[in-house]
Amino acid sequence: MKKTILITSGAKRFGRAIAEALIKDNWSIALHYNSSKKEAEETADSLNKMGGEVSLYRADFLDIEKTEKFIESLAKDKNNWCGLINNAGLFNYDTGDNYGFKNLNEHMTVNFSAPALLIKGLYKNIRKINSSSYNSNIAINILDAKIFGLNPDYYSYTLSKLSSYGLVKMAALSYAPFLRVNGVAPGITLPAKGQTLEQFKKAHKKNILQKSSTIKEVIAAVKFLIKSPSVTGHVSLLDGGAHLSPPKRDVAIEL
User: Fold this and answer.
1) Counted domains in the chain
2) Maximum distance among all alpha carbons in the chain?
3) Which of 13, 38, 190, 232 has the most CB atoms in a 10 Å sphere around its CB?
4) What is the CATH number of the domain that holds 170?
5) Among 11, 25, 88, which residue's Cα sits nearest to residue 222?
């Protein structure tokens, strides 16, 4: 029986690329989506045609009660669930002088609380099935290189990602030796919503190496963490060295 890995927000962008890569490594995919039903169905169909095993799950991570029910359902459906890619995220703009509790709370719920509950649920499932091989028991949080080179933009989002970084450390300590918990923090990798190709290319070069991360590098980092049984509590930073000389404002603001 193939082992199952849950990929949250797996229908598009990072999530879909990671799913395609892990299908080739013989994982069964539990692909989560929220509002992107059409894209999720298209992704699942494409992956199944590649010879994969893909199951679709919908959950709105803003609703913690529904998130907990989703975890219970997944654990019941997939006795072989032993992997997790926390890729889902909320990314809305605010600053320290105009943020409100609602926006802050929503970012913390989606980007921190839901991943924390998912990791705990995965750990409990691993203990329940009494997996004798801990090497492939893995949770990976997709973070953001921004938290290693801070600027004041995207205040609530940044706070939530800093919390998710702390979650990597605390969960790694709490769930060893049964579950390894790591993170990947990409820099500018894909065009942002509303960004032109020219703007993206300029942003991609705003670091000391004059080239930021690519989808191929993100996948390589994910695969390294999955296949490295001695690594836990680690975050792979892929930002072209931007954290060594961070901009005073977010690159999207400076353009």
Assistant:
1) 1
2) 52
3) 232
4) 3.40.50.720
5) 25
- Give the β-pairing of 81-86 and 54-58: unpaired
Q: What is the DSSP letter of 201?
A: H
Sign of CA dihedral 10, 15, 20, 24: negative
Which amino acid type is present at position 53? E
Alpha-carbon span 121 to 254, nearest angstrom: 41
| All residues at 6 or more sequence positions from 107 whose CB lies less than 8 Å from its CB, including other chains | 90, 92, 156, 157, 159, 160
Range of the domain at 180: 4-254
Q: What are residue 31's DSSP bridge partners?
A: 7, 56
Q: Cis omega before residue 177 (within 30°)?
A: yes
CA angle 177, 169, 79 (to 5 degrees): 45
Helix (H) or strand (E) holding 237: strand 235-238
Q: Which two tokens stand for residue 130?
A: 């009494």
Phi/psi for 150 (5° steps) reads -70, 145
Per-residue tens of pLDDT for the chain, all 255 residues: 789 999 999 999 999 999 999 999 999 999 999 999 999 999 999 999 999 999 999 999 999 999 999 999 999 999 899 999 999 999 999 999 999 999 999 999 999 999 999 999 999 999 998 765 678 899 999 999 999 999 999 999 999 999 999 999 999 999 999 999 999 999 999 888 778 888 889 899 999 999 999 999 999 999 999 999 999 999 999 999 999 999 888 877 754
